[in-house]
Specification:
Elements: H1 2-15, H2 17-20, H3 22-33, H4 35-58
Helix pairs in contact: 3-4
Length: 59
């Protein structure tokens, strides 16, 4: 986790925060333009996480 934060800090210094935050802002705009599709994607991700957690409980 620490390595990821250091890499993020270095990338922010080199490229700037505006360049790094462009991708998340584009994803939010896409979700706002077509919420039904991205809602289904979110439900799918949540179900996969729940299935993973339930699978670990059984072991």
């Amino acid at each position: 986790m620490g390595v990821l934060l250091v890499a993020l800090g270095v990338a922010a210094q080199v490229f700037g925060w505006d360049a790094l935050l462009w991708l998340p802002m584009a994803a939010v705009e896409a979700a706002r333009s077509n919420p039904e599709t991205y809602g289904l994607v979110v439900i799918g991700v949540v179900l996969m996480v729940v299935a993973r957690l339930l699978g670990r409980r059984r072991e």
